[in-house]
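Issue 218. Parser rejects a valid record. Input:
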Amino acid sequence: MTTTIGVLALQGDVREHTRALEGAGARVVPVRRRAELEAVDGLVLPGGESTTMDKLLRVFELRDPLCAAIADGLPVYGSCAGMILLADRITGGIEGQQTLGGMDVTVQRNAFGRQVDSFEADLPMQGFEGGPMRAVFIRAPWITEAGPGVEVLARIPERSTAGEGLGEAAGKIVAARSGRLLATAFHPEVTGDWRVHAQFVREVNATRRS
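Output the parser choked on:
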């Protein structure tokens, strides 16, 4: 049976994640309702606006079921805003902003600045073959603290692909794994390099067999 992976389709770059997951061999469905969430083997939380996603999760009555599913072991991959949603703690959020939690990390929202401060860098990714991964950062977060059960997969290099020094950002955690949760501060879905999605599909497949 083909693995079915949902993409939270309340807001954000749903289409790009869908294309990447399908390229990795998964059957992909949009998730907006509880019944749709209960029918998937894994879930992607896309990039977008984390505060808007938080509000819509509550409007669509998905927040509590999704928190329960994460606690119960549902494999979830979050990119950019999705990383914020998976964090147990955030800084720089608006008043009343909530996360889904599950990863023992503190995430700084909009850590890299405004849209005009978006940039690309080549990241060595622990556990991924094929050389450094081109990473696109768009108003991205970073992880400031990670608990002992969190595996750090990538940190910001000293310089961007354009040769610019990255200052305070250098060395910050931008990809991590904790149990069945995977998070990146960058957007692999927009580069055509779908290794992150392929790895997530493999992990969901392994979960289904266990």
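Fixed in the parser; the record now loads. The two ends are 15 Å apart (CA to CA).
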